[in-house]
Amino acid sequence: MKLYEQFLQQCRIERKSKKTIQNYWSHIMSYLKYNKHIGQWVHPADMTIANVKAYFAYLGCINASASTHNNAAFAIHYLYKSVLKLPMNINRFIPRAKRRKYPPVVLSPEEVNSILQRAYGPYRLIFELMYGAGLRLNECMNLRIKDIDFANNKIIVYNGKGNKPRQSFLPGSAYDLLINQVKQVKTIFEKDISIITFRGCTMHEALRRKFPNAPCELKWQYLFPGTHLIDNRLRHHLHESNVGKVLNEIVRKISLTKRVTPHVLRHSFATHLLEGGASIREVQKLLGHSRVSTTEIYTHVMQERIKKLRSPADTLQRKTDNLKVVNFN
Predict the structure, then answer these.
(1) Which pLDDT belongs to residue 247?
(2) So what's the pLDDT on residue 8?
(3) Which of 13, 100, 218, 233 has an alpha carbon 20 to 30 Å from 200's alpha carbon atom?
């Protein structure tokens, strides 16, 4: 069995996510290419810890980030321990790199409003949901019509990080936009149904087997469908890169000097909630964080803002000339 097939089989047995598989394999390929570059091609089972140390020394030489270093260590450790079943303890010889903790970029309410007012088409609603409900970009793109509970004013996220479902509230500012978006999806869906080769929306294979009619039902359609059919058969959601391009275009127009990405809207959601009086536990639940320590990073942002505030006593215009000195002795 080829190395990739062996690796893929083990990942599927352990039910690794698609992104984890791609991330691990890219680091494994980088490790193999480096050892091929400095010598002849050698199967990783025939390599020693010296090869591993040489590769990580190379990463340090090119100033690879701490995240790249740690992800490569996870991937190579997984290759030897789980795939090749070899007793090579990478963690013993390769220390973890310390990551720098940067405070998240947070927009002011005025800056968020400027972005929302200039957004167009479905991107206005996407930005509204990311800022108004704290959704990640991929969570927003994977929303289906059935995930919007208009009666109870909530959004159900099934494809959250780590496959953990959660609920968030439906912002009132997005209610009319959602109604209009559902109508547009219905119009697109009715046109697709008339195509003989149409097989519905894209779905996970196991889910398609369990609900064979679901891909051709309106409630299962993506809330933000793509503009083109795949092979004239399947309808997928909008590509995530399109959202970033539209946001960058708007940021340039309003001359924002901050480094703004779609995820910044989620950071702003959490920070503004805390500043508005929400408890950190409530924000943790809405964001879907496993640990409260992850959510605490937003309190540091608030502390930086508190340092910049002035006491109201300092703003009073008082004359010091007429103040009498009182002797208490």
Answers:
(1) 96
(2) 94
(3) 13
Which portions of the chain are predicted below pLDDT 50? 320
pLDDT at 162: 73
In this predicted model, what pLDDT tens digit does every residue of 279-288 receive, in sequence order?
889 988 989 8
Judgement on whether residues 89 and 109 belong to the same structural domain of the protein: no
154, 208, 263, 285: the active-site residue: 263
Task: State yes or no: is 266 an active-site residue.
Answer: yes
DSSP state of 228: E
**Active-site entry in 144, 235, 266, 272:** 266
- Are 115 and 124 in contact, with CB atoms under 8 Å apart? no
CATH number for the domain spanning 145: value is 1.10.443.10
The tokens of 261 are what?
């990405």
Same domain, 154 and 240: yes
> What is the DSSP pairing of strand 225-230 with strand 234-237?
antiparallel
Structural domain boundaries enclosing 76: 3-93
Q: What is the pTM of this model?
A: 0.79
Task: Judge whether 4 counts as a catalytic residue.
Answer: no
The reported pLDDT for the residue numbered 71 is 95
**Backbone φ and ψ of 144, nearest 5°:** -115, 165
- The upper half-sphere exposure of residue 153, i.e. CA atoms within 13 Å in the direction of its Cβ, equals 8
DSSP β-ladder status, 234-237 and 200-201: parallel
Which residue is listed with tokens 């990942």? 11
The confidence score (pLDDT) of residue 159 equals 77
136 is catalytic: yes
CA-nearest of 124, 142, 111 to 267 is 111
Q: What is the pLDDT of residue 136?
A: 93
Q: What per-residue string of b and e applies to 133-158 under the rule 16 or more CB within 10 Å gives b?
A: bbbbbebbbbbbbebbeeeeeebbbe
Adjacent-strand bridge partners of 154: 149, 169
Is residue 328 included in any domain, yes or no?
Answer: no
User: Scanning the structure block, which residue is given the tokens 């968020």?
Assistant: 112
